[in-house]
Amino acid sequence: MAEFRGRPLWERAARTAEAIDFSERVVVIEPDSPIGSRLGWVRVENQFAMQGMGTSIAAGVRALVNCDRVIVMLADMPLVSRAHLERLIAAQGVAFTRYHDGSAGCPAIFPRSVFPLLETLDGDRGARSLDLGDAKLIAPSQKRQLTDIDEVSDLQRLRSAG
């Protein structure tokens, strides 16, 4: 809910997703979240959100009805670009974002064939913990897109960088 450039972080991520013609959009939230309904989105309450990201990925994937693939994005990464999401979409199979240290992370895209595995995630186990075969790693055009706001100091750094 923290604001950056006049909008909550989650809304910036949502607007980036809305710039792409996805067949479904799901926002996974904690039960007491102040995030309300948003046109074109299915709001999924995750009773286990405090246990970690894995529970939210599983809840979101279970809510999907009619799609061949899913992109998992994080609401606290407000600088991810539409162009980066489009590069993930163009990949075949599983593709993660490549971080500057070579590690894999979000956003990431997964074909329907791995949805059952994603639905088993729990706690802090993210999709990187699964055996998903040959996953592609796709770096964003600018390292800054990987800015992740986990602490107040992260937000302060982002605001001071402009």
From TrEMBL:
Alphabetized UniProt keyword annotations: Magnesium, Transferase
InterPro entries the UniProt entry points to: MobA-like_NTP_Trfase, Nucleotide-diphossugar_trans
Domain MobA-like NTP transferase positions: 2-130
Highest rank taxon of the organism: Bacteria
GO molecular function, one term: transferase activity
Protein name in the entry: NTP transferase domain-containing protein
